Amino acid sequence: MANTRRAAAVGGRIVSGVVGLALAGAAVFAAGTVQLPDLGREAPRTSITPEGASQLRACAGPLLQLASTDTALAAVQSIGAANTTLSGRDAAQEPLASPDNTSGDASGLPLRLTAPTDDSSDAAALLAGAQSQFADQENVFGAAAADCAEPSANSWVVAGSTEVGRTSLLVLTNPTAQDAVVDLEFSGENGPIQAPGSQGIIVQTGQQKVFSLAAFAPNVVMPVVHVTTRGGQVSAVIQQSVVRGLTPTGVDWAGATVAPRTEVTIPGFVVPGDIPASANDDAYDDQAPVIRVFVPGEDDADVALNFIGEGDDQNAPAPLSVTVPHQSAGEINLASLDPGNYTIVLTSTQPLVAAGRSTAVAGDKSDFTWSPASDALGAAASFAVPAGQNPVLHLSNPGSTALDATLDGGGENRSLTVMPGTAVTVPLTENSGYTLTGAVGAFGRVVYSGDRGIAGFSIAPTNPAADTVTVYVR
Amino acid sequence: MSPRVTAIIVVHDGTGPTASPRAHDPADDQRHLRRTLDALAAQTRRPDNVIVVACATPEAELELVRRAVPDRIVTSNDRLSFGQAVAAGLRVAEPPTSDDDFLWLLAQDTAPEPEALARLVGSLEVSPSVAVAAPKNVDWPDGSTLVSFGQSMTPFGTTVELVENELDQGQHDTASDVLGAAPAGLLVRHRVWDEVGGFDPGLPTTDDGLDFSTRVRLAGHRVALVPDAVILTAGDGVAGPNRSTRAHARRRRARAARTAQLHRRLVYAPTAVVWLHWLSLVPLAVLRAVWRLLSKTPEFVGGELAAAFVTAFGGTKVLAGRKRLKNGKTVGWSSVQPLRLPFAEVRRRRRLSREAGQVVYTVERSELRFFSGGAAWVVLASALAGVIAFFNLLPATALQGGGLLPLSEQVPQLWQHIGYGWRDIGLGFVGAADPFSAVLAVLGSITFWEPSYALVLLWLLAFPLATLGAWFAATRLTERSGYRIFAAIVWTLAPTFLSSLADGRPAAVLVHLLLPWLFYVGAVVARSWASAGTASLLLAATVAAAPSLAPAMAVLWVLALILSRKAIVRVVWTIIPTAALFAPLVWQQGIVGGTWLRLLADPGVPILGPQPTGWQLALGFPAGDEGGWLAFGESLGLPAEVLHVLVPVLLAPLALLALAALFLRGSVRAAVLLFVGLLGLATAVGASHLMLTFVGSFNTSVWAGPALSLYWIGLVGAAVVGLDSLRRAGRAPAVVSALLLAAVAVPLVAAGALGTSVVQRTDGRTLPAYVAAAAAQEPRAGTLILTPQPDGGLAAQLVRGAGETLDRQSTIVSTDPVVEDDDLRLATLAGNLVSQSGYDLQAGLAENGIRFILVAPPATNRGESATTRSEELRVRAISALDGNAQLAHVGETGRGMLWRNDGEATTGPAPETAPLWSNIVLIGTGVVFLIALLLSIPTAASRRATESTPRTVGRRDRIRPERRRRRAKKPAVDATEVGVTAAGTQHPEPIEVAAEDLPDDRTVADAPDEDRTAEREEHPRG
């Protein structure tokens, strides 16, 4: 009796044990392999569009050249006056001081442009300005154009050269109401450059300071400047002029390019049909059409270049891919491209900054222009077209939907249709202001070309510092 | 003249006013009534008149009565009390003609012996001063036990039975004069009955005889006992209270006794002080309710309160009683003074009854062997290990990092943050607080000089407390010290516990410390109210710290309900404090908000947690990363693939032990524990997929740590059960699995030294020192914290004062997926602050009471570095704020870039209060917890009760004769495995008595429960 009871108990234990073992195994297996869906909602967020603030722009002022006097080693003097055009309702301009300019206000001064925002509307006022100048002097020749940019606390200027025969001037204009404490960081083709005196430069409110780049970064073929400010904000422009032998071969203003990011678009890049021949047999020829790139991070970047052509001939060049080492500036040579206007989209694995440079024959000399990258336009943008030869708007649409835009200004109202992946060229009237509506996601650049040289500037979207921001409330 | 005896028999239908309806067996009534009538017919001296008062008697009994041919039958449709029935019967009786007219009071279950009436009449005849003759009341059916033989009062008026449940061996036969007697079988002079006014209608079942006899004494007569007259009573509840031992009848008896005592107190009190007694009724009832809770007899609380209210508000007709007393009283109270029992005598009787040994020990409860079993050394060793592991936290006064924040500075502030009311987080709102805030309030009050220090102590003492708790929990499963220590070590080295300590999760650490204690008391909830009270408190604390455990605990509770039979009220009580604590939150989130899932969110600071895979959860690692081995192995050079295989292999012996327990003896306990573990694993897997909490732009899952603690307790428990069945053979596997677990736990234990722990010392401020200094002047100064998110967005948060505290956090806010109006206001302000905008920032800042703006370092996603978009936004925010003329740039602090608002900043929206609801919630929760606390405080009586229960749970401790014979051959027998009775005699069928005794007012012991033997396999959870 006891034995059968014990046997039954043991048998029951074995059965229950096996069942339990199977259940445990199944449970652990299920825990490991079954993919349960995540239950939960997205973090609560809201898009806040900041109310429109009154607008501020800074125009850099006339072309300058170095002129050292007994009292000021860093002095410059202006060469002629710039033509400035404004565009915007209730736009006003006032001159700023430029103490480094020994010519004083003889040839004009940098300008501050303002436009108040209408209280009844949330959108910011449309304000734009641009300046252009043609110089034909002993050591400066060419056409230069620049738009009057918004001041910024953090900007990258990819331009200039401090080789023999190349003069680069860094022009910092402070149109804001506070003094700006500026820190400059220089990098070149050999990596970051230590430049004493580049930190803590004070640009007082309403003033302009001009520096020769060679004072900070001498003998650098491909300098890249990073301008950061505390307190007020500055608009940074590099004015570069080139003299080959005894002949001046070009001058241009290069504004700030967009902040480092993984997708950079350079609209309206001109590959001229007539590139002047190389003067010497140096391996480096800065007359070739190039894109100067710089990766500020810690890792090398793999960059793919895609091209968008213009006009009826839609045969865009084949994409290129290059590897760019980190922290040293490099230039991608595009001499192999067919002549034309291209929009170049650089897609990179690491954030980078880029600007393009092209040189074209102008009469019996040559001129170059810098094409920094720009941001995509919003629903409404405005730009001004100062005096110059053959101003043309290059509008490109790298996106995937067609754009129906309206270009209003210069006495006419045109509607443009830009198919996805293409660009259009629109002739403009000089000395006028334009408004472009409906070109969301498009990139634009105004280019002057002729026998007096080539010049151009990009169209900036309104108020990037007032973009809609997503605010998470938890 | 020869005396005339009128016998009045009161017959009910057997279910008298105090009997429980379920006790009614009609055959019983017939038996009782038939025997009574037969005994009456067999008297040597027959009564001259027999009047039967039938109160709502069924036809069958009436037939019986008619066949006995009484002189009169009085029927009534109401169930009259004994006194009222006798009075009704007397209405049809002839009035007394002489002093020798006697009344004999009988009931349906009082069967007098044949000589009884003769002896009673004889004693009354012989002594004219005696007005009431009381017979000996003995037990039905054989009359061997004395039920009642005289009653008396203490000097304060409490009833005392002179004889308590003794065998009738003639030891009280010399008693003569008493103060009072039980009403069954009394022989009363009819004239005296009329003179005194009969029984008091306000005393239906209890103390009616005593009160009548007292009034007879006060009228100048005597009450005498007649030992030769014997009456058998069955205790049907007609004459005297129902003597059933069922719980329902006991409660009724207690309530009736207390009502009777209060009624007599009010009736006997001198007129000058009766109002004082009346005022004291309800307060005394509350005090006695508290005393009932303390003495672990909560079932009598209702009776106490009901008795007080009924007596105070006229239910027992005190005024009529006072008038009756006054009318009949001729001598003073001092004449009955000698008959009262002095207090010393009462105390002596109580001591004797306690020592009479009602509890028969069938199981020897073994000693705890805490010190002799080596557990003290293990606890000391783990304390040392804890100090070494958290060496850098020793001088800390507050902790920060992970989910740790300081607590409020003052203890009253801590207690303001519980319940329902103003929640001071963000812009503030009126709502329910997390139950975890109540746990934190208790913790912080322990170190009242510095509430945040409680969390430091929690970290430093975590190891020894875990060891201690696990050792005690293991005492429920095994008697062997070695295996108890094994359980303690394995519990302390649990990967989930060490992960929670390294990641700074105070709620999960608390759960891991509380779970073993919950198991320790929860396993024996059914045994006593003390364990039910303690278990309810621990369960409330555990579920408050980890609401994700609520579904698993609910399943276990339902299981306990189903399996508990007698103790169902105790099991129901375990859940009540938890329900009371969670009620406001359940109301707000569940019933009003309709989002029941959000109740499961983790309380405390919302932090971004890891996403463990199912395999990692099955191994017991809530933070993934194989318990820190992947990172540790990288630094040592071990490839990840090797670790993925090695770590499960190292943990396998423990799992194998747990599963092997299913095949050994005690597999039922192992199966239950493994079921608990399965629940824990399922909860962990479910919790890791519930992305309920929002942190900036991320949503994060519920921390699986507490659920894995439940899983671990199931595993370890099953392993200990298996080892216990293996006995000596289990020593090697135990040592091996403990050592391998220690090897697996190395990276987590050394997390402090390796730098992978996020817990750090802090000075109690979570905002920059500049803000804290300003907050000293302006306590409500708000700081707007802007954190750039990886996708280029911005997270905006408002913090008031010197920083965020742990007890102010609210899951209502952290799980809310909707952008509320307050949130939108703050978001608009934040969005415009970081941009160039024309928004009137000054008005926005002043309206919300913002004094500082802090741009924090960009948020990153689980180990990655800051993205460029977040860096861009940070630059944009800094430049926009710099450009604002009204904000003064304070500078870079350890927590980000700080700006000060120099304009007018008001204190923001004023705190609203909902005083009515918050008071109701606070008082209600407080009362429930006070009851639980009173129930859980150990008393001498409850300690004695636990002595009679085995320490372990679920083991068969039955005494089997054949086993004992076998064991007698081996001299070295483990005495704890064989139960012995207290007297050492070998009882084939031992009787175990109910653990609680009734502390009745009457100091009468109830008959022992005869329905349970020691052979029962208690369910481990009830």
From TrEMBL, chain A:
Fetch the InterPro entries from UniProt.
Answer: DUF5719 (IPR043777)
Pfam families to which the protein is assigned, alphabetical: DUF5719
Classification from the root reads: Bacteria, Bacillati, Actinomycetota, Actinomycetes, Micrococcales
- From which source organism is this entry? Okibacterium fritillariae
Region entry Disordered: which residue ranges?
A: 90-115
Per the record, the domain of life is Bacteria
Q: What is this protein called?
A: Uncharacterized protein
From TrEMBL, chain B:
Coiled-coil region(s): none
What residues form the membrane-spanning segments? Answer: 272-294, 300-320, 375-394, 425-446, 453-473, 485-502, 509-530, 536-560, 567-587, 642-664, 671-691, 703-723, 735-755, 916-935
What are the alphabetically sorted keywords of the record? Membrane, Transferase, Transmembrane, Transmembrane helix
Q: Does the keyword Membrane apply?
A: yes
Protein name, entry field: Glycosyltransferase, GT2 family
Per its record, what are the GO molecular function terms?
A: transferase activity
Composition-biased stretches, type Basic residues, lie in 961-970
The residue ranges flagged as biased composition, category Basic and acidic residues, are: 1000-1022
Can you name the source organism? Answer: Okibacterium fritillariae
Q: Which Pfam family is one of this chain's hits? A: Glyco_tranf_2_3
Region: Disordered, residue numbers: 941-1022
